[in-house]
Please model this.
Amino acid sequence: MTSQVRGGQLARLLGQWHALPGRRRSPDYAALAGAVRGLLADGRLPLGVRLPAERELAEALKISRTTVTAAYRELRESGHLASRRGAGSWTMLPGGHRVASSGLWTPTDDLDMIDLSCAALAAPPELIHAARAAAEDLPRYLGGAGYHPIGIVELREAVAQGYADRGLPTSPEQIMVTSGTQHALDLVLRLGLPPGGSVLVESPTYPNALAALAARRARIATHGLALDGTGWDAELLLGSLRQTRPRMAYLIPEFQNPTGHLMPAELRERVVAAAHVAGTDLVVDESFVDLPLDGAELPPPTATFDRHSRVVSIGGMSKPYWGGLRIGWVRASAPQVQRLAAARVGVDMASPVLDQLVAVHLLRAAPAIAAARRSQLTAQRDALLGALAERLPDWRVRVPRGGVTLWAELDGPISSALSRAAEEVGVRLAPGPRFGLDGTLERFLRLPFTLPAPELVDAVGRIASVRYDLDRASRPRWREPAVIA
Model:
C-alpha cells in the first residue's frame, strides 16, 4: 500500500520554499516544484509516496490551487511525479537517474560531479594486501557451512582487543560482527525498541539513524547541539533524559556527525548514570573514534561507566578504512549479544567470511593506517577551511578535533536552495535539514573533507559562485499582457 504525506506534513518539510533567495528567479509554481525536487534529492521525501491533493496542499501553503496544479504539472514533465485520475500523484525518479549510496538521487552520467554528500574516504593502499592475505586464509573455513551469526572468532578477538586498548576490558563473547554500522544499529533497534517507542537523539544527527528510527515508527525527541564549545549542554541533555524517560537514546560522543564535537568524560559518566535512573538504553555510535586530529586525546569509552548493561556500543570499518568493506560490530553484554544473534535470523544469517578475514588483516595494520588517515584528513580539512575563509568569509565554521566533517553556519536560511543551485554547477551537497526533523537547520550545511584537497578547493569555488548568484537574482516584475487590436 502506498504511503501518503499530508498537506501539513509537506508544508513543514518545504519550509520557506517561496521566500528563499534562490527562488526569486522563478514564478511560484516553478519554485514549489523545485523545492519538492530538492526534498526528493536529499532523501527527506521518499520515493513512491503519495502527495497531498492539490486543494489540500494549497490550503496548507496558503497559496492558490492554480499554483499547486502548475507545480504538479512541472513535476510530471520532469519525471518526478506520476499521476492517475482518481488515484492521486506519487513521487518517482526521472529516467536516467538512480538512487546513490548516500540516499540521494543522482544522474547516471554525472562523472564530473564533486560529491560532498557522502562523508567517506577512498580505500587505503593496505586493502589490497589484506584482501590477498584473506584469500589465503579462506580455505580454513571452507569445510564448514560458513554461517557465523556473531562473527568469526578471529575478528571478534581483534575488535575486543581494540576496546581493551582503549581501557575497556572486553571479551570476544561481548562482540557481534554485523554487515556495517547501519546494520548494527538496525539490529539493536529491532531488539530493544518496540514500534512506536520513544527515542532521544541529538540535533543535528546522522540522517541514516533517523531513517532507521523512522522505519521503527519511533517517537523521536531531540536535544539541540551548540555550534561552539563542547556541543552538548549537560543540564539540557540530562534533563531531557530525566523528564522524557525515553526507551532509548542514540548518541555520537566521538566527533559527532555532523558537528565534529567530542563529548567530555565527565558528561559521559553523568549521561550513563541518568540513563540508568530513567530506564533508558544508550546506543553509542563510535564510527569516528579512530580519527582524532591535532593530537586530540580521547576520553574513556562511554561504556566504561556502565554498570547495568545500559550501554550498547556500535562501530565499524566504514569511516577509518573503507565503506565498501561492509563490516561493523556491536559491543554489549554476552547475553545481549546472544539475543541479537537470535533477532538477526530475520534479517540475514551472517556476515561474509571473506570480508571478515579482510577486516582481521586491516585491524592488524591499524596503527599505520590510522596514522596515515589522520595526516591525510588534517591536510584536507585545512585546505577546505582555507578555501571557505577566502571564498565564503561570512560563513561560521568551527574547527573539529576529529572525524571527517565540518558543520558550517551559513549567512542565511539557504541550505536547501544552495544545494539545489550547487547541483547545477557539479557539486552535490547534503543540506542541513537532512540532519534534523521537519525542515529545520536551514542555516547549516555539512561539508566533509574526505576528497583530495584540489577537489575541495574547486568545490568551494563553485559553491561560492552560486551563493552570490542567489543574492544577485531579482524577483521578476509581472506585467499586464498587452492588448493588440
Observations:
- The chain has a mean pLDDT of 88.
- The longest helix spans residues 366-391.
